[in-house]
Amino acid sequence: MARRSAAQAPETRPWGEARGGLIRRTIASGARMLGVGARTPEPPRRAEPVPPARATPPMPSAMTRRAWADRLWGEGMVLPGGAAELLRLSALLPLSPEATLLLAGGGAHAAGAVVAGARGCFVAAHEPGAAATRPGRGRVATQGFDAAAPAFRAGFHHHALLLEPFRAGGTPDALLAAAATALRPGGQMVLLDLVARGGSAGPWEARWLGAEGRAATPPAEAAIPAALQRAGFDLHVVEDAGRRQREAVLEAWQALILALRGEAGHPAARDAVALVEEAEAWLLRLRLMQEGRLRLLRWHATMARPPG
């Protein structure tokens, strides 16, 4: 019989006064550096307000925002919590030096290097926009990841770790069927991602989608277990991972702000724009999670039968 862990009670305030305005202060500080008005979303009152108009300073490049993400989570990382969270998730899988792990999602190459270094396994990393590389003397081989048409080497991988793969788009049925085909019989899979709950959050959701560069809303919560079953997985555990991610986000931003205070001078205008954009993206994510519009879940399942 499948066993599911009890979901953690949602945290009522993802940022309190003591730590609170941490990301909001980052947005305000960055705006002051640029000489523009702060763009922090204000909480709605009775009716959902229209988000304030954006100022038009120099547009940040992906590389500049990538540099701030490197400082928050670790070089090449995308997942809050960085290496520590990756090791916690990979510890849920019975990896050995002889095993090959399928790892897909943003920052898969850097994540694969962390997991391979700690667990000694081989890693087939699939990252959006990544160029193909061979492992050479290392244990990580990297390929691109097309969320709209996911394709992995069939029957080759012992286990799988999928890290917010729907951030790049795609559907649960397409991704999980591809993962099922890629796994050997009895292979285990850990999937971590956001799901949508309830109706649209209106302009705040649209603004968050743009801030994170998402083409579509995350899948509905009920869509994942249904797709797992159709793909041939037995689902064992469903965990609400939202509180842990909120804590990791706040801790990382606190550390970054403290580090910036100790540095001489201020970031250049282009870097400050990117800092504000990155802070706003996380503020909007946490807000939607706080309101119950989004939920971050972890699923742990075993390949029970061939897909189809």
From TrEMBL:
Q: Which InterPro entries match?
A: SAM-dependent_MTases_sf
Where in this protein does the record put region Disordered? 1-21, 36-61
- Residue ranges, compositional bias (Pro residues): 49-60
Q: Which domain of life is it from?
A: Bacteria
Query: Where does the signal peptide begin and end?
Result: none
* SUPFAM superfamilies in the record: S-adenosyl-L-methionine-dependent methyltransferases
Q: What is this protein called?
A: Class I SAM-dependent methyltransferase
Q: Which organism is it from?
A: Neoroseomonas marina
